Amino acid sequence: MSVTPDKMDILRFKLFHFQPFQLLCTNFNFRLKMRKQFIFLFALLISSNALLAQVFSEVVKSPDGKVQATVTFDKKRGNASYKVRYKGKEIIKESKLGLKVRGEYLYTGMVMLGSHTATQKGTWKPVWGETEEIEEHYNELTLELKDALKLKMNIVFRVFNDGVGFRYEFPDTKQVGLISVLQDATVFNMAEDFETWWAPSDWDSNEHTYSHTKISEIDATKYLSDIEPFNQHIVDVKAVQTPVTMQSGSGVCVSIAEAALADFGALHLKADSSGHNFTAFVIPGINPEIATVNGLPFKMPWRAILLSPDAAGLLTNHLILNLNEPCKIKGDLSWIKPQKYVGIWWELHIGKSGWNYREADGKPNPRHGANTENVKHYIDFAAKNGFDGVLVEGWNEGWDKWFNTNKAELFDFTKPYPDYDMPEISRYAAEKGVKIIVHHETGAAVPSYEQQMDSAYNYLRSFGFNTIKTGYVGHLFPKGEWHDGQRMVNHYNTVLEKAADHQIMVCAHEPVRPSGMHRTWPNFMACEAARGQEFNAWSKGNDPSHELTLIFTRLLGGPMDYTPGIFQIDLNQFDAAKKERVHTTVAKQLALYVTLYSPLQMAADLPENYEKRPDVFQFIKDVPVDWSETRILNAAIGDYVTTARRQKNAGDWYIGSMTDETPRDMKIKLDFLESKKQYEATIYEDGPDAGYNKNPYPVNIRKETVKKGSKINYHLASGGGCAISIKEIK
Ligand code: NOJ
Ligand code: CA
What we know:
Layout: H1 7-16, H2 19-25, H3 34-54, E1 55-61, E2 67-74, E3 79-86, E4 89-97, E5 99-101, E6 104-105, E7 111-124, E8 134-146, E9 152-160, E10 163-170, E11 179-184, E12 187-190, E13 195-198, E14 211-214, H4 221-224, E15 239-241, E16 244-247, E17 253-259, E18 267-271, E19 277-282, E20 291-293, E21 298-299, E22 302-308, H5 311-314, H6 319-323, E23 339-344, H7 346-349, H8 372-385, E24 389-392, H9 422-432, E25 435-441, H10 446-462, E26 467-471, H11 486-501, E27 505-508, E28 524-527, H12 534-538, H13 546-550, H14 586-595, E29 600-602, H15 607-611, H16 614-622, E30 627-636, E31 640-647, E32 653-659, E33 664-669, E34 679-686, E35 699-706, E36 711-716, E37 721-728
Parallel strand pairs: 23-24, 23-29, 24-25, 25-26, 26-27, 27-28
Antiparallel strand pairs: 1-2, 2-3, 3-4, 4-12, 5-6, 5-11, 7-8, 8-9, 9-10, 10-21, 10-22, 11-20, 12-19, 13-14, 13-16, 15-18, 16-17, 17-22, 18-19, 30-31, 31-32, 32-37, 33-36, 34-35, 34-37
Helix pairs in contact: 8-9, 10-11
The structure holds 1-deoxynojirimycin and calcium ion.
């Protein structure tokens, strides 16, 4: 066991918490009165034994000693608290721990039964990811508690070099049977009024823009009048989504998130209007409980505090993944494959075609996108350009019923529309070496989907396909449940498990935001759970700092199906009156393939738009979706980032660099390349006078021969980017 409690810290804590001592220290005449006080101090020291027994306090340090969590239990009051220091500085001041269960607060009147420590040191290899090996090294402390009704509760702390995780566990519920958890009462008492990047706490949607304020200034009032997303449910304007990311005056970054979210409502946080602390705010369901737990030893999801000396470090932080359990899929995993895909998708969003086979009045829709001929056209394009998959939306019965029937039965996942010839498409796709990504939009009609899951999965497997894109657009059925509540969290996880049984990979849209579950279920390739590219097609869109905020917040929990790669920035191709556009340059669309990590990356634009610019499209054809190594060359939250990644099991590197609305001159040094080797760098940079607002199209492509230590200079236009492929010259 290598947890070494810091004796000095414990002593300091005990002395500090002893009031007579505090009074003496602040007494101006302390020295003069020394003699008089001697007898009293002597008595104090003798009585400190009794005091020691009243307060349990242990410092759990990270293996490198830089992170310290002090966990305290006040035996007199019966409550637990913690605080966190990083590199000698306080990050979280003393903060309460506890839950509200069955109307009782499990943070006062508890009895401490004991404590124990442990250490874990090892490495593990993700099936796919940003790096091929991850170190898992932490020191752990478990506090064993019991309430007046004999309900046992453990609080477990794990301290890693890149942050702190803690969670509540009910090791034995036999005595009490069903437990209703009414709220998580954990406090995060931040040491400063940090700069904060946050999205509003919405029980039903994650598809919001981000704001950047101090903690004390958090106020989501402006989001209430926003019509996007239409099914929003914002209950408290001081509450935010997790992960919420903060930065101190000295540059230290902190993100509060959760890991391994299962059988529980999702964690949001309420900011205190008078100061700068957060209190946990877990989303309930139809009933006010945030979770009902029965007949178990039960472990709640982890509360994760990610720590990094700077913004760049946050992007290679592995705390969330390390707090998740190892892979639960047994046996052969070779069916799980990172993929690049195209599909019948953007054309639906920009109005070239539609999802419905029939209009609402039953007449055929002449613009139905998912017809056999159009699908074959995409299959041809995918095969020609080396893509693995073709996503097809609008292929099955149900789309024309969506807005006028009740949600008890809506979509049919084994019944294609009459103009979608499934056997022929399956044959043609197999001949071309491409697989269809089968869309399962549920329209948030959840029980109906649950009934059909097995038959739907057997159906698509029988045609040789093994990836689904699920969707939960709109208000949920059963009514009263929320996208972030326990009922839905269980649903999303059931889909992953069932899909794994059928050897199916999953990309989920409109789910709860991810919490690193792809370690446990590596068939969980990506999800949306944030405001994606689609908003550019039909709303005010995403401003140039949006993706630069997403990667430091939402993406910390797992990959996002953002769907980059739009070349036709003005979206009036099929409707001259259409004013919407994408708020980037074309070069920035290329950069997103590297900066915004996902093992499932779409080339979202239409084949005809790629065919017009084959030289620029080459980068999308080349860029891999699985990596051995990732380096962040520079980063500032919401402003800019430059990411370099090495292709999985290969020596080639790819770089993505992007900025918000501010143009920047960048200089990068390639000191990560292997020595004694030569490489050809192809640089796709914003062309002359480019800018996201007026001139998004020019991309200048140039080549340089480079080696370890070479420097590359380039200019990022306003809302611009740069993408670089670096291939070894053999
Ligand atoms: C919203 C999803 O995010 C989008 O990708 C999909 O095309 C539509 N729903 C329709 O299912
Ligand atoms: Ca969506």
